[in-house]
Design goal:
Blueprint: H1 12-24, H2 29-60
Length: 61
């Protein structure tokens, strides 16, 4: 369900290159950004969980 928007400011050259690559791959830019967001969340949730677990293990000693 897509019910929220997100506005960001980026350099014009970065935006144009990103849109160009999306067009070349026949993928909507919004789809690519959502994929980046999901990957970022997954990668960082694991890192944060690991860091928290390390802290708990250290405190128990």
């Amino acid at each position: 369900m897509k019910d929220s928007g997100l506005r960001i400011r980026v350099e014009r050259q970065l935006r144009e290159k990103f849109l160009e690559l999306c067009r070349e791959q026949d993928r909507p830019a919004s789809q690519v950004i959502r994929e980046f967001m999901r990957e970022y969340i997954e990668r960082n949730e694991q890192t944060i969980a690991n860091d928290k677990n390390k802290g708990r293990n250290f405190e128990r000693r």
